[in-house]
Amino acid sequence: MEGAGVLETNEMLSVTFAEKTKTLNRRRGSYKAKITKLQSFLNDKASNAEQLLLQSKLDKVSEMYSSMEALKIEYYEVVKDEQLPNLELILEEMEEDLEEIKVGLQTLLLKHDDISKNVSICNTALSNNGNSPPPKSSFIKLPDVSLPEFHGAIENWSDFKRQFDSLITNNSVLNDTQKLFYLRSALKGEARTIETSEDTFESLMTVLIKRYENKRVIINSHIMNILNFEKLCIESSKGLRNVIDVINKNLRGLKLMDLETNELTHQFLINIIIRKLDIESRKLYEMSLTSTELLKWEMFLEFLQNRTQILENLHG
Fold this sequence. Notes:
Blueprint: H1 2-44, H2 51-78, H3 84-126, H4 157-169, H5 176-186, H6 201-212, H7 215-228, H8 237-256, H9 263-274, H10 279-288, H11 297-315
Helix pairs in contact: 1-2, 1-3, 2-3, 5-6, 7-8, 8-11
């Protein structure tokens, strides 16, 4: 009787997995249809589409990436091991199609930006009433600058806002609608889920500032990042580079909060970092000291950089 109960339970589980697999297959078919539709748009209509429509399609591609990732995770829970290679191949092809669509849409958006720049240059030339030609430097094509991205980590907010304000917020050529689209496209992860009562650039930026511009929390976050990075158990160029990057990034973040370092903070930092290094690096650091004078911060950073370079040379 007990064996019959186990058999019945296994059969029920098998039916449940089969039903869930069928549901996932239907979802996969729906995503494939959407990808095909986006491919048709890119091939037939995208070249003549407005910039805002292209941006809307690009946003859909980003949403599809998230949906595909969730689908893959759910498949792994129900699909048998022998079925995985074929399934992964199918999903990989769909992701490659999405990547091609994404690149195609981004290329067209860049062309729109170039056209806008050229129109602006022509308008400047016309405003001279033909009296004098515009300076040659006006026609230099500068490299495209990628938008900064913000994923919701509060310690990255100040750096993001400073860059975004410089590129977009303070750009007098852009109107409110364009600024809003640029801001939405720059928000990723948790930050992308934020909603406002009004669909305007100013309202969205205000909500972001209220949520993330918490000076005390930002400063605490930078300080904890410096204090809590993992101790190096073995000598490693990668580990040392990470130490240097963590320190520089968070000191830059504190500087954006108007907190400058001084001799005292430098000595604190040196003592904190030394205790996080591997034994061999600590030994070499002590051997590098030639007097009882306090080591300067710049010299300590130079020691870490040299140590990193030596390890890279030794391990190829």
